[in-house]
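[step 3/7] inverse_fold.run input=structure_tokens len=106
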């Protein structure tokens, strides 16, 4: 079996800076999917840390806004980033798409 593993040690804490992992995780996921691979993104419960990285991937590599990314993911699984992770994703959305729009974040 040709399995490649990319691990990120991350705490599910509002004070943990997950944003430092956004680009490297998005790049890893993108390379795997572009090469015909399958990607499993998981953490202990599977709704905060892993969901945050999947949302960042969708924003960075699939050009989705945060709201669009959340809508796309929540149709298939739970998405409950903690407040700190959500704040970091909002900051990423602002960097990618400019000033905060009149958007209500979930």
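[step 3/7] decode complete -> sequence:
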């Amino acid at each position: 079996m040709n399995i490649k593993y990319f691990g990120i040690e991350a705490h599910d804490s509002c004070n943990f800076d997950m944003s430092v992992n956004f680009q490297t995780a998005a790049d890893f996921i993108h390379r795997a999917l572009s090469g015909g691979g399958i990607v499993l993104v998981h953490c202990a419960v599977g709704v905060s840390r892993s969901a945050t990285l999947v949302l960042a991937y969708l924003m960075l590599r699939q050009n989705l806004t945060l709201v669009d990314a959340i809508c796309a993911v929540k149709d298939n699984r739970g998405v409950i980033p903690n407040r700190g992770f959500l704040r970091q994703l909002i900051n990423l959305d602002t960097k990618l798409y400019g000033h905060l729009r009149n958007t209500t974040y979930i």
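[step 4/7] annotate
The CA atoms of residues 7 and 93 lie 24 Å apart.
The chain has a mean pLDDT of 90.
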